[in-house]
Structures are given as structure tokens and as C-alpha cells.
Amino acid sequence: MQALAHSVRDRLIERWHDTHQYFKKKDPKRIYFLSLEFLMGRSLTNSVTNLGIQDQYADALTQLGFDYEVLAEQEGDAALGNGGLARFAACQMDSLATLDYPAWGYGLRYQYGLFRQIIVDGFQHEQPDFWLNFGNPWEIERVHVSYPVKFYGTVEEEVLNGKKCKIWIPGESVEAVAYDNPIPGYGTRNAINLRLWAAKPSDQYDMESYTTGDYINAIVNRQKAETISNVLYPDDRSYQGKELRLKQQYFFVSASLQDIMRRFKDLHRSFDEFPEKVALQINDTHPSISIAEVMRVLVDEEHLDWSKAWDIACRIFSVTIHAVQPEGLEKIPVDLLGSVLPRHLEIIYEINYRLVEELKKSFGQDYDKLSRMSIIEEGAVKSIRMANLSLACCHTVNGVSRVHLETLKTRVFKDYYELWPQKFQCKTNGVTQRRWIVVSNPSLCSIISKWLGTEAWIRNVDLISGLREYAKDPDLHTEWKNMKRVNKMRLAEYIETLTSVKVSLDAMFNVQIKRIHEYKRQLLNMLGIIHRYDCIKNMDESDKRRVVPRVCIIGGKAAPGYEVAKKIIKLCHAVADKVNNDPDVGDLLKVVFIPDYNVSVAELVIPGSDLSQHLSTAGHEASGTGCMKFLMNGCLLLATADGSAVEIAEEIGAENMFLFGAKVDEVPALREKGTTLKGSLQFARVVRMVRDGYFGFKDYFKSLCDTVEDGGDFYLLGYDFASYLEAQAAADRTFVDQEKWTQMSILSTAGSGKFSSDRTIEEYAQQSWGIEPCKCPF
Ligand code: H53
């Protein structure tokens, strides 16, 4: 595997090198994509596919007595991210490369990626993912590309050419060393760079300690520096103002900006041209400190006037917000920021002062509004609102689906939207068909190419709609069903190896794989399964014959400190234990929890699924990208009208999916009803079964049951339960009619074109970044 990877890497490096020479020669405007997380998954299969050398490699390996697929399976995932946001960043890199955009990704090279989930007696345990144990053949260490990143210290005033200026005297310096990861495009020679920074001790400050004789402490401090890039935070929604996290953010932002500015200065003398050559994309609010850093460099180091520097900053930055709730937006306590980055705090205060002065011109003395819009949040813990810093500066604020943008405009950033409506744009997420069809479902890939008579859809996915014409063709149906069966067989073998549960290929494979969150409502899924089980238990043999057999597959990680989510995982296992061993049920129902869900598990599970579930309470899922992967793979969707599912319904027709539940605009009123809102009797019954210990662990599950009863049902499981069961029943009825099901499946794939990240990237390039393709000649 290592040898194979190094051989492929040689091909990659040639292209990556040529692409960068070409970019250097042409000097186009470049997009720099800053993200604290990238969930790349495996590289081998993706690289070999994008380079177009799979057949040659497979043949060569056969001659050497190896099997390409077996070797490919050996590769571990690069899991430098938590979930949707991070995987979306990875899809965007693939599209940027394929569409020949002059792009760079910048992030952190964590030594420990997302934890590995192991299940012991049905409980989640976390194990460290030391993914670099055997080295990473895909990266190139650039020992000579390194920058010092400073922290702490004080700010002093100095007079320079008769003008007062501030200078930051830092107290600590850490070296950022570049590790380059080539990202090949498909059907092009272009390969772009994902540059990840690792922290290494800097020699600068140590000398003093050595000479004062504090040898041991000097060494210990050197080692401490490396901890900055040690570990990825495993919780993707709540940030508790931790010093290490702030240091991680500033570390990668500072190194990236030094790199970007060095590249710019190699060819340009004046920062006036900076916005013509540089676009900076902030992926969620995590890299927002880059705004203060650009201001610091331009004002303190390049000695530009404040207003000139601010004008430049406002022209280069755009941001994408992924959160739906204001609580999901990062805040940093003022005391913490002031201690770690004292000069940046001053700069943020200055930005805020000028912002509030400007706001007063529009809103007068409306202090409530001013305080909501301020970058500084007063309160028990005075904090910096990183989202407001981004809103104040960025020329574009992107939402990730139409529903999400509406939420941003009408709730989360209402005041800002009223002031600057032109900044707000919708860029519905997408996923790359290269990984999610070509690599993970080669049989489907061949079918699509055969029926369209071309492989051009792999670069131009709009062509995939051409399948609609054949949606009723019996020959296509036969091929389609065979493809699905082979994929199900592969998945069934995987399930049996992992869990010892044998599943029937005739059953409907019904899947929910994603991070475990209350709003994603895996609990609703479980309660639905319990209801189904309960019904089967109460049936006579003739009724049982009419039941559509189901394999219910669930997978996902819970953040280590998220108790409710961990209880949901335990409930999955407790129900699985009972159901899978009940002779009354047999093949009619099986429940399987797939441990350690990650990108490569998704690549196996998605092509083998019949039905996928996207159950978020309406208004809570910003977009969702899992649903797009299932859609591409011809898997039917059972979903609430939330996030991108609304747009999917428009593309494929609502009649080709199973929609249910309260709508976004109904949710607030339903919540108001609070305790008066009772779930159905069926709902009460299944919750009672859990409460009464039917699946064991009575005391442990009590608090879980409390979350959905006694008026505390914030995510409206009780309210949506009846329509959820109805949607499930509709799926059963359709599954019995295999011709209809297959037709809907084909129409799903045919309607998935809009949800390619290629479309998303084109929109970003044209509407936000103002960049043009720069195609390296072959
Ligand atoms: O970002 C995805 C969306 C998804 C949303 C997710 C996300 C995270 O993964 C982490 C934090 C956060 O605020 C949002 O939940 O709906 O598809 C990519 O945009």
C-alpha cells in the first residue's frame, strides 16, 4: 500500500508542480480557502480516479500478484474534521481542482484527527486517532516553508516618521511548518494544493533560557509548542472559549496569511493590487481572526492608513456561515483574546468603534439594535462575536441552502440583513460526483455512462438529467436493480463481519448515518423502529406476510461530552439486542449500528442503501450534504422539509421522495404550545416501553425519555411522530412495487445534478470571489 501510494504520489507531484509553475507564470487572482477542518477520507482511490490511471494501476498490480481493491482498503481515513462542514470543504477542493480554478486550501495538520468510536456493551467509547503512525504518503513536508507565529506579550506605542504607531511585542513564538497535499482535478492536468500547518518549536526565544541555565524548562517549553496542532476539537457546535482553540485558529491563519502575502509580494509592490489578486474565503466563523490579522499586518507592518487597510480587507474577504442557531456561532471571551492576542483585541475594538459610529448613522440611538450588532457582547463574560466581525468586513455572507439563507436573513442576522441586504447570498451546498459516484459506486458509474453514451457527466453533471428519458426502460431497470443488489451484498457482508448480524438482501435497507444530534432526531428513528417492532409482535402470521422486511442501519459519532447523544447510541444497541434475537421477528426487522462512521464507511453504505433518512426538525439543518450523496446513488429519501431537502424536492419532484413533518414556519408556533402539545397515543406507547425498561437500562434511559415528554419536547418528536409513521408506511407501499421504486430511484439520480459541488463552486467563483479558471496545458 505504501509503495503503491508513493508511486501514485509521483504522478500527482508532477502535475501539482506544473500547475503551480503555471499559476506563477499567469499570476491570476487566486482563491484562498481557510478552514479549520477538512475531512478528506482516503486519497488513493480518489487520486487514481482523478488522474485517470486506475486501469493501468490495477493491471500492473495484478501482474505483481496484488489486488488493487484489497490494497485500497488498507488506507485509513484522513479525518481532520468532524462532519458536514469539513466534508463539504473537501468536496469543494475537488471541484476547485477539477474546474481549473487557481485555488489553495489552508488548514491545520492535526496529529490526532477525529476520535475513533468503539462500542463496548452498547456504549460509545473514544479512542485517539493517531493517523500519522505509519506516515502519510500523500503529504510533502516542506521544511523550508515555515513561518513564526507569535502569541501573548504586550502592545507598545512607538513614533515612526513623526507618527504614533502600535507595536506588538509578543511573548511566545511557534514555528508553522507547511505540509502540502496535492489535490488532483478530474480530466485536467491541474492539481491544486491543500497546505496544512504543523506546529514546531521555534528557536528564537529558547536561546535565552538556555543561556540562563534553565535547560530542562527550555526543552519542555519547546515541546509544548507542538501541542497547538496536536488534536482536533471533537465537538462541532459548542465552543467554550478555550485558549488552545483560539491558538489553533490564529496559528493557521497567521501562517497562511504570511504565505499568501509573501507570494503576493514576490510579484507586486503595492497592496493596492491585493484585492485584484487575492480572495479569502472564511469557512464558518472559525478563521475570522484573519480579518484582524490582515488589518494588523497592513497597518502595523505595512504602515497603511487604517481606512485604506479596511477598504482592502472589505474587498478580499467572504464568509460562509454553516450554523443555524445563534448559539452555534463562536464567541471568544475578551480576557482570553486580550491575553493571547493583545494587539488583535485592540484592532477589533477599533473596528467595532468605527462600525458602531456608522450604525448610528442608520439607526440613531436604537441601543438595543446597536448592542445586538456590536462585535463586542456585554454580559457576565464580555466576549467577541466572531460572526459579527465577519459580517462587518466581508463583502459576501453565504448561506448553504435557500431555507438556511432565509433563517440567516430573518432571524440570526436580521439586523445586518436590513442594513446590508446585498451582502447576503445563497450558495446551496453540493458534493463531488467523482468521489460519491465514480469512486464509491463504479457499477452505477458504468450504467450512467453507458445510457448517456458519454463519460462527460463526470465533469459536467448537468448531463445526468439525460437519464430521465430512460426512467421506465425495462433494460435499465434490470441493470439498475442488479447494481443495487451487488452493492447491498457488499454492505451485508460488511455488516455481518462487524456485528455478526445476518441480513436479508430482499429487505429494504433503511439508513441514517450522520453525527448524532438531538436535532437530527435519531431518537425519532429509534422510536419508529420500536413501533414497527411492537406492531410485528402483535400480528398474526397472515398479517406478518404483508410486512415489508427492513434492515435499519444507523451510524454516527456523538461528541464525547454530549450525554443525550450517547444515550441515543446506547438505545440503538439495546433495541438491536432485543429485536435481532427475537424469533417472532426473524428477517422482518433487523437493527444494526455501524461503529466508527467515517468517510470510507459512507462510501460503502450509501451505494447499498434503498432508503435514507434525514429527520431534522424543520429549520435546524443548515443544508445537509449526506442527502445529496444518497440522491446521487439512487437511494430514495425520507425527509423533513428542511435544509437542502426542500430544493431536492423541487428538482426531482416531491412525489419521488417521502416528505413528512412540521414545516419551518410552523415550528415556532408549535413550540409555543408547549405542554398542551401531546404526541399521539402511539408515541406515548413507544416512549413508555423505553421508560418501563422493555429494552433494559430503565434508569439510564429515563432522562432521554424526559427530553421528548412533559412539555420538554423541543425538537417536536411527539408532534411529528404520526406523519413520520405515515411516510414510513408510504415507503413500504412503494417498495412492494419494485418497478415504481426503481423508477423513483433513477429519477433521484437523474435529478441530482444541481447538488454537485461543481455547481456550488461555479457560483462562489462568479458571485463571491471573482476568479477565472487557469488551466494548465497538458
Ligand atoms: O455544515 C454542513 C451543513 C450541515 C451543517 C454543518 C455544520 C457542521 O458540520 C458544523 C457546524 C455547523 O454550524 C454546521 O449542520 O447542515 O450541510 C455544510 O454546510
UniProtKB/TrEMBL annotation:
Q: Where does the source fall among the domains of life?
A: Eukaryota
Q: Gene3D superfamilies from the xrefs?
A: Glycogen Phosphorylase B
Its needed co-factors are: pyridoxal 5'-phosphate
What keywords would UniProt list here?
A: Allosteric enzyme, Carbohydrate metabolism, Glycosyltransferase, Pyridoxal phosphate, Transferase
EC top class named in words = transferase
Catalytic activity from the UniProt record: [(1->4)-alpha-D-glucosyl](n) + phosphate = [(1->4)-alpha-D-glucosyl](n-1) + alpha-D-glucose 1-phosphate
N6-(pyridoxal phosphate)lysine (modified residue): where? K629
This enzyme's EC code(s): 2.4.1.1
What does UniProt give as the signal peptide span? none
Extract the PROSITE patterns matched here: PHOSPHORYLASE
Gene Ontology MF: a single term? 1,4-alpha-oligoglucan phosphorylase activity
Please explain the role this protein plays, according to its UniProt record. Answer: Allosteric enzyme that catalyzes the rate-limiting step in glycogen catabolism, the phosphorolytic cleavage of glycogen to produce glucose-1-phosphate, and plays a central role in maintaining cellular and organismal glucose homeostasis.
> What's the family?
Belongs to the glycogen phosphorylase family.
- Supply the NCBIfam families for this chain: P_ylase (TIGR02093)
Q: What is this protein called?
A: Alpha-1,4 glucan phosphorylase
